[in-house]
Each structure stands twice: as C-alpha cells, then as structure tokens.
UniProtKB/TrEMBL annotation:
Domain Gnk2-homologous: 26-129
UniProt-recorded name of the protein: Cysteine-rich receptor-like protein kinase 10
Entry's transmembrane regions: none
Entry keyword Signal: yes
InterPro entries per record: GNK2, GNK2_sf
Organism: Quercus suber (Cork oak)
Keyword annotations of the record: Repeat, Signal
S-adenosyl-L-methionine in keyword set: no
The gene coding this protein: CRK10_6
Signal sequence residues: 1-23
Top-level taxon of the source organism: Eukaryota
One GO MF term: kinase activity
Amino acid sequence: MAMVSSRLVFLFSICILISQAIAQPNFLYYSCLDKGNYTSNSTYNTNLNQVLSSLSSNTEIEYGFYNFSYGKSPDKVYSLGLCRGDAKLDICRSCLNNATNLLPLLCSNQKEAIGWYDYCMLRYSFRDIFNIMEDSPFYM
Ligand SMILES: *[C@@H]1O[C@H](CO)[C@@H](O)[C@H](O)[C@H]1NC(C)=O
Ligand SMILES: *[C@@H]1O[C@H](CO)[C@@H](O)[C@H](O)[C@H]1NC(C)=O
Ligand SMILES: *[C@@H]1O[C@H](CO)[C@@H](O)[C@H](O)[C@H]1NC(C)=O
Ligand SMILES: *[C@@H]1O[C@H](CO)[C@@H](O)[C@H](O)[C@H]1NC(C)=O
C-alpha cells in the first residue's frame, strides 16, 4: 500500500513538472520554497545579489560546480550552481547567468528558491545547501 501511494506521489510530481514546464518556457521547472521572505534592500537582499553575481561572473571554475556563500548569519546566503556533465563551459556559464537573473525575479523576496534549465540548475538559500540536499526529489 505504501509502495502504491509513493508511486502515485511520484507520478503526480511528474505531472506537475510537465505542466510547469509548459507554463514557464524559461525554466524547465522552478520552485520558490516559501521558507521565508526578505525585504527589498535588506542585508539578505544585498548578500543574495552579491552571491549571485559572483556565481555568474566567475571565470575560474571550469568543472560546472559552483558553491558560494556570502555574508554573516542570520543573513548569510548560500548558493549552488550545477551544470549538466555534458554542457560546454560557455553554455554552462550562459545558463547560470540566465538563472541568476531570472530566479530572483520569479521568486521575488523569497529566501530560498530552486530552478532548473535544460543545462543547469541554481539554488539559493539561507540554509547550508549541503545539509538540505536530501529534501530535493531530484537527487535520487
Ligand atoms: C512570504 O510572503 C508571502 C506573500 O507575501 C506569504 O504568502 C508567505 O506566507 C510568506 N512566507 C513566510 C515563510 O513567511
Ligand atoms: C532600494 O534601493 C534603491 C537604490 O538605493 C532605491 O532606488 C529603491 O527605491 C529601494 N527600494 C526599496 C523598496 O526600498
Ligand atoms: C560548499 O561551501 C560551504 C560553505 O561555503 C563549505 O562548507 C562546503 O564544504 C562546500 N562544499 C563543497 C562540496 O565544496
Ligand atoms: C540565456 O538567455 C539568452 C537570452 O535570452 C539566450 O539567447 C541564451 O540561449 C540563454 N542561454 C542558455 C544556456 O539557455
């Protein structure tokens, strides 16, 4: 019984994924996780901008994995950018650049958000992302 219902949940998530992909041509999927809000021009806002701009402007990392944080608790922002293994470096950077611009617009004033393009994913949070990975259904 538990098996059946978890399969149903899984199928249901796929339906949501597909419908969101149709509704939002830029991201394949994104989610504003509603874990908290920040106000415009707050320290959190500034730190988030800082972390996203260092992620999108980085030219040293060449392996498609970006792990940045900035600021001091409780306004510290963690971010994680990841490109698909077969994405070329310029596509990877362009993809993350697009994601860092779009995600905060779509999830305005949300402290935590995640977005997936074809070639990359971006996530940011006030929580250490390496401790919350297991929350995500995408890391199966
Ligand atoms: C954030 O703000 C939205 C709308 O302004 C509200 O619906 C939501 O409950 C808030 N979330 C939290 C975690 O405070
Ligand atoms: C945030 O700061 C900018 C520039 O300092 C200002 O133009 C803008 O009106 C401020 N926004 C809010 C919501 O305070
Ligand atoms: C990611 O960054 C955090 C804090 O900036 C650090 O503690 C952690 O070790 C890093 N993880 C990896 C896999 O680089
Ligand atoms: C980023 O956005 C630009 C402009 O919309 C688009 O031309 C480009 O293909 C996008 N990059 C990726 C990797 O999706």
